[in-house]
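Inputs:
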Amino acid sequence: MNFTVVNKSLSVKQINITGVSASSVFIVGDADWIVCSSLFDTPPESLIVGAPPLMPARVKSDPA
Amino acid sequence: MTPPRTAVVRYVRVDNVGQSSILNAGDAARFQAEADIFALQREVADFAGDEAPLSMFSAFSEPIPEVKRRENVFTSRIHDDPYIRVEEIRVIGVSASAGMFIGSCAQMTMVSRTLNIRHFIQLPKTKTNDHIPMYPIDRFTGIVL
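Outputs:
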C-alpha cells in the first residue's frame, strides 16, 4: 500500500495540558510509529477488609 | 526518506515530570518507557515499604498483546511547510511512562501497569440513597482478614 502525506502549514497559538499520564504521549513533531499499552487492574480481591499486618516495631537503633 | 519537520516552540512551561517519563527537546530515534505501579490505599496510612513483591501479582507479568503490521505500507511525506510552529505550551504534569516531545521521534513504545488495592480496617457501611445502593458492599467478594 502506498500512502502519501502532505504536511501543510501548521501554526498553533497556545496549548494547555493538565496531565500526560499512564503511557501516553504529547508530541510536537513527526513519528513513524507509536505503541501505547496500559493495564489497570482492580479485581474483586483488590478490596481488603481487616487489620493491617502488624508492622515491625520501629525501634531506634542503639549505637551503644 | 523525507527528514522530519522542525518544531519551533517559543515558550514551554512544564511543572512536573516523573515516574519513568521524559521531556525531550530535539529529535530522537527511539523512546521506550515502562512503569509498574502498585497503588495500595489504606484506611490508616501505615506502610512498611515492602508490602508485597510485584511478582506476586499477575498484572505485572501478563504479556501485552503485540501489534503487528499486516501489510507493508510505503509512506511518502511531502512537507509543504517544514516547520511546526507553536507559540506557547503549558503542561502541569507528565507522569507514569508518558512522554512529551518537542521534536520528532521515530519509534515510541510505552507500557504502564497499575494495580490498585483498597485496604479497609472495617467494612464500609452501605450508603443507600432511598432505594439505589450507591456502593454495592453487600455483594462484597474481596478478602476479609
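Remarks. Residues 13 and 42 of chain A are 40 Å apart (CA to CA). Chain A is about 0% helix and 55% strand.
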